[in-house]
Amino acid sequence: MSPGWRSVTVADLEKAGLAELRTGPFGTQLHAHEYVDEGVPVINVRNLGWGNLRADTIECIDATTAVRLEAHRLLPGDIVFGRKGAVDRHLLIGQGQAGWIQGSDCLRLRIKPSAVLPRFLSYALRTRDHVRWMENQCSHGATMASLNQAIVSRIGFRLPDIGIQGRIAGILAAYDDLIENNLRRIKILEEMAQSLYKEWFVDFRFPEHESVLMVDSLLGMIPEGWETPLVGEELEVLGGGTPDTRVEAYYADGSINWYTPSDLTASASVFMDASSRKITGEALRSSSARLFPPFSVMMTSRATIGVVAINTTEAATNQGFIVCLPNERVPVSYLYHWFRGTRELFENLASGATFKELRRSTFREIPILVPSPEVMADFASACQPVMDLLLALQRKNTVLRQTRDLLLPKLISGEIDVSDLDIDIGEDAA
């Protein structure tokens, strides 16, 4: 252990009056019918990331209910754990979440920053050793991993003096800040591209649209010279398959990217460079999975329908996908945004008693708007540079995450000496 570092547990901090644990409100205190569309946000387990907020589905309560739950109001620097399921994740509350409410399925740890910087502790909670420890502690004899106050109290970590904590947190936070900035840029670029698609191909306000006649079609009134072929007539449509999971050789040392819906939902990215699981050539040949070229468009077609991404390498998928191959008439920049803009229709056409599925046979019968070659070329020229920048930013973030994750255990353990560095961590959840 580095000189000046000591081993502590959350229980040690509690005994010293430096930490407080609180379980979220009981079910009798917060009922499902009390959630509203707008109001004070409530943090639930689905919103917990690796120190960060997953903001896709945030529920709210009204101000009156929030006052009643004042004891569960969150402050910057609070660390929120999930009680069920995602026990290895947590959220460090920042200024942006100040005043939000802790949900029923969460535990809150509040530490006095004079002893431990919350951001330093948050990084300590992201190490692989800690994640494994949490999984081991929370999974004994249970169908779903479960976390309680006793387990949180046993969390141990190595603690340097407050100055060293700040330097370590500052280094790691610099990477996270760059990642977050790139994510904001990515979001803006995605919105720009989708808005351009809508303006040209939904509202029909493309360049020189005033001089183009509108004619009737399968999709209603469209510009003259544009077409509405069925998807199956215009595009090559592929499905996927799952190699026998009992055959270890199909997956061990595999090099072929093989996507499952969770790859797309977890990433929430336009482009996919790599799948979480890979298969071998033998596995591909033994199943109904098909290899398709880079820069095809993949869409989830089961359960969660309509999540879309573009693969950047040769790849295959499991059976929960519909994959379309772009062509000269329908380039990838247009096809991707057509998929996104048509999601509601896909969901409406899905069927099934156990889970909803959009069948490929149904998908092939959907008309797709194909603009004139001139308009399509203009759109590709305008949109493709945006897509290229999106990919570049995504890859920058991949490198930043890899570098941060290499540094993390070395910094948190004291293996890298930062005592001579002058770093300002700032005030947000310090």
Describe what you observe in this structure.
- Helix content is 36%, strand content 16%.
- With 430 residues, it is α+β, with helices and mostly antiparallel strands.
- Among the domains are: 6-159, Adenine-n6-DNA-methyltransferase TaqI, Chain A, domain 2; 229-368, Adenine-n6-DNA-methyltransferase TaqI, Chain A, domain 2 (Alpha-Beta Complex).
- The strands form 6 sheets. The chain has a 5-stranded mixed sheet with strand order 2-10-7-8-5. Strands 14-21-18-19-16 form a 5-stranded mixed sheet, sandwiched between helices. A 4-stranded mixed sheet has the order 3-6-4-9.
- Strand 18 and strand 19 (308-311) form a beta hairpin.
- Helix 6 runs antiparallel to helix 13.
Could you provide a short overview of the structure?
This protein is an alpha+beta fold and 430 residues long. Among the domains are: 6-159, DNA methylase specificity domains (Adenine-n6-DNA-methyltransferase TaqI, Chain A, domain 2); 229-368, DNA methylase specificity domains (Adenine-n6-DNA-methyltransferase TaqI, Chain A, domain 2, Alpha-Beta Complex), CATH 3.90.220.20. Helices cover 36% and strands 16% of the residues.
